[in-house]
Amino acid sequence: MNLITKRLQLREWRDADREPFAEISADPAVMEFLIPLQREKALGEWIDNQINHMQAHGFCFWAVERKEDGIFIGTVGLRKVGYEAFFTPAVEIGWRIARPFWGLGYAPEAAQACLQFGFDTLNLSEIIAITVPSNLKSRRVMSKLGMAYNPNEDFDHPLVPKGHYLRRHVLYRLLRDQWQNNN
After folding, report:
1. DSSP symbol at 151
2. What is the pLDDT of residues 103-123, one digit of tens each?
3. Domains along the chain?
4. Care to name a GO molecular-function term for this sequence (predicted)?
5. What is the model's pTM?
């Protein structure tokens, strides 16, 4: 399953994506607001989990490449939330883009394709996004996508250790009806 935008292709993972994804995941700026991902997990387990999620559900955090030159730039996609919280069950949208490609509008462009797929093809009633409060770049993308933030829904991420500076998260939501009215 591939999603195509004006400039990007969101596609299933290939073995050739493992090394570039591990490099992205080793960049401290990219991972500033994420729990560090060990190189071995970036090369194997993380991507294998996406492949398995795709096989089980028909969607995942896809590999993203530029159409013009086929360069791998990161990952954007949808995934079922894998922990219990007040907003689960839910499907989350997310992205991880290599730093050289920041500020070019790739994350919102790819995310819009994911939203369309999620609402039109998967018939989801809602898609959520989460991040830490200080991740202003991702929060701007969430806002550009039309997602709504309610400070009363901030939460402690259950998979982040207590006391860790990344434990507190903000929740953004987008309902299918809201998305359809704006698109």
Report:
1. G
2. 999 999 999 999 999 999 999
3. 3-182 (3.40.630.30)
4. acyltransferase activity, transferring groups other than amino-acyl groups
5. 0.94
